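Input sequence (217 aa), recorded before submission:
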Amino acid sequence: MRVLVVEDERVLADAIATGLRRDALAVDVAYDGAGALERTGVNDYDVIVLDRDVPKVHGDDVCKQLVAQRYPARIIMLTAAGELEDRVEGLQIGADDYLAKPFAFAELIARVRALGRRAAAPLPPVLERSGVSLDPGRREVARDGRQIDLTRKEFAVLEVLLSADGAVVSSEQLLEKAWDEHIDPFTNVVRVTMMTLRKKLGDPPVIETVPGVGYRL
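Predicted structure, token format:
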């Protein structure tokens, strides 16, 4: 899942991004509304964590523009204003969820994950295929009942493959969903990650390479 964090308080923005990355999400950061619109113009995000009071382009206007463009990402608004009328107003302009500051980080992650499931076709809470199971909420992976310890990127790549439900996923799609905008598109990181993931999943191999196209589980 790929997330955009829009927050002008840099320490908070970076802390949110770090926490989400630890949960195996790909995260980009914009420190103002103009930067948010620039990034959504070139990247596809599943969820946008949007502070309502950001400079250059107000968060409300960012939300309105994305809704008008029918941008597919789900939007969760963050704000220091937690009154009922503020929450109602935020939802009325197109936000999908609303979280008042200060908030518990575990709740933010749970809401981001929930919105991510709504951004795409509905998925079961535990993804399973070919004896491999992945529980995004518990961060657990198993094959035929054997628990497997994965790095954050390996977990993210496996989640993308399982979510595809047997369809081929290209290297470009994996870069889009499992890494952020700072990754070099010409890097071999996908191939290296796939090698280590296959090794940890064990035999017989369950990840197929489709030459010139991508990977399929």
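Checked by second reader. The chain has a mean pLDDT of 90.
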